[in-house]
Design goal:
By secondary structure, the protein is α+β, with helices and mostly antiparallel strands. About 35% of the residues lie in helices and about 25% in strands. It has 12 helices and 20 strands. The strands form 4 sheets. It has an 8-stranded mixed beta sheet with strand order 6-5-14-15-16-13-17-20, with helices on both faces. Strand 1, helix 1 and strand 2 form a beta-alpha-beta unit. Helix 1 runs parallel beside helix 9 and helix 11 crosses helix 12. The protein is globular. It binds adenosine-5-diphosphoribose and P-hydroxybenzoic acid. The site of P-hydroxybenzoic acid has 10 residues, from loops.
């Protein structure tokens, strides 16, 4: 199989070299191509590998609008599920958060990140934008000069070099771009949570139409879905747990125990088709720029999954970055590029705050003691009794403007 999605090797020169072919890199490539700007995507993994990763699946309205404007909204609008609200379960009861009413008509779309990535690959193929897969040892260089370049290697074409005007670091949390920045030119902020999420994907109808975020003294649980035949469930677990510790029967017993009886009664237990444990982390790197390198998405920041902000934040970064590069090349106006890091970070920190808050209010924190538990209860009681608090939750959940 060819390492590139289209015939032939990648060019020797491009305007923007994009490192990483996750949602951030692929969307940037498509938006730049639509604006007449040349780019190449260098992705370490195979296309099949990228498309087999299971990630969150709740898209904000700003995300769906941008995907539509990039020309990749067709299948999403046909197959995605519009959600007007979700439930928070607490002490055997539920609180319904009516997103549409509380946010002045906004909703979210349930459509898996895997599907978004699929649609982006299809659009890039159709447009003939080069995506190099299995690019090994990718190294961005000369980032502080006017002539940056990226070197890499593929099995098919050996050692390669692409000269460019800019490098976009869209290579996720474990990528090479952020680490290419000298330590004294970047500051990082981090919180690691003392638990993980154990996730199961199963080919059974979801427990209910809307999502359920459940707080329980045994730990947090989330009931989500990908489509009417495919459910996604999570339970809070210990970071030291192994997937092997959790056969399906134990997972479902624990999930049921954490849900109100009325909801648990609807659970259809199906064989897990994917099961994994993810740690929870908040992380931000500042600034999101070093010379001619611009960071976007998980390369620059991580949120815990509570509230599903990760993909949506990657999309808003790409909105700011594509707009700035388009102004640079089109109107010869560099002001938006100069402002990229500040513009993106202003929104990133608000989403970090929301994801941290939602995580803190709904998980079980064993080391927080009885004071911490009472504060959590008061937080929930306040939310349940205050339309203002619910409005703030809804405003963040549907996505802050960009
Ligand atoms: N060289 C080339 N590609 C790399 C390298 C490297 N050294 N390191 C990582 N990559 C690739 C990864 O294989 C991955 O496909 O970069 C891509 C980064 O994609 P994501 O991790 O999906 O990050 P991003 O595109 O920013 O999307 C953010 O998607 O991954 C979720 O939880 C994340 O929801 C969030 C959103
Ligand atoms: C998911 O469906 O994977 C999902 C949904 C909502 C979240 C996190 C994950 O907050």
């Amino acid at each position: 199989m060819s390492a590139t999605s289209h015939a032939g090797a990648a060019p020797k020169r491009t305007q923007v070299a994009i490192v990483g072919g996750g949602p951030a890199g692929l969307l940037l490539a498509l938006l730049l191509h639509r604006a007449g700007i040349d780019c190449v995507v260098l992705e370490r993994r195979s296309r099949d590998y990228v498309l087999s990763r299971i990630r969150a699946g709740v898209l904000e309205q700003g995300t769906t609008d941008l995907l539509r404007s990039a020309g990749v909204g067709g299948r999403m609008d046909r197959e995605g599920l519009v959600h007007d609200g979700f439930d928070i379960a607490w002490r055997g009861d539920t609180l319904h958060i009516d997103l549409r009413e509380l946010s002045g008509g906004k909703t979210v779309m349930v459509y898996g990140q895997t599907e978004v990535t699929h649609d982006l690959y299809d659009a890039l193929d159709a447009a003939g934008v080069p995506v190099v897969h299995e690019a090994e040892d990718v190294r961005p260089q000369g980032l502080e000069t006017a002539e940056p370049f990226v070197t890499y290697r593929t099995k098919e074409h050996g050692e390669r070099r692409i000269d460019c005007d800019f490098v976009a670091g869209c290579d996720g949390f474990h990528g090479v771009c952020r680490t290419a920045i000298p330590r004294d030119r970047i500051e990082t902020f981090e919180r690691v949570y003392p638990f993980g999420w154990l996730g199961v994907l199963t080919r059974k109808p979801p427990i209910q139409e809307e999502l359920v975020y459940a707080h329980h003294t045994r730990g947090f649980a989330l009931c989500s879905l990908r489509n009417p035949q495919l459910s996604r469930y999570y339970i809070q677990c210990s970071v030291s747990d192994k997937v092997e510790d959790w056969p399906d029967s134990r997972f479902y017993d624990e999930l049921e125990a954490r849900l109100p009886d009325r909801i648990a009664a609807n659970l259809q237990r199906g064989e897990s088709v994917e099961k994994s444990i993810a740690p929870l982390r908040s992380f931000v790197a500042e600034p999101m720029r070093y010379g001619r390198l611009f960071l976007a998405g998980d390369a620059a920041h991580i949120v815990p999954p509570t509230g599903a902000k990760g993909l949506n934040l990657a999309v808003s970064d790409i909105y700011y970055l594509s707009r700035a590069l388009t102004a640079h090349y089109g109107e010869r106006d560099g002001r938006l590029l100069e402002g990229y890091s500040g513009d993106a970070l202003a929104r990133v920190w608000k989403a970090e705050r929301f994801s941290w808050w939602f995580t803190s209010m709904i998980h079980r924190f064993e080391d927080d003691g009885s004071f911490g538990q009472r504060i959590q209860e008061a937080e929930f009681d306040f939310l349940a009794g205050s339309k203002a608090a619910q409005t703030a939750l809804a405003e963040n959940y549907v996505g802050l403007p960009f």
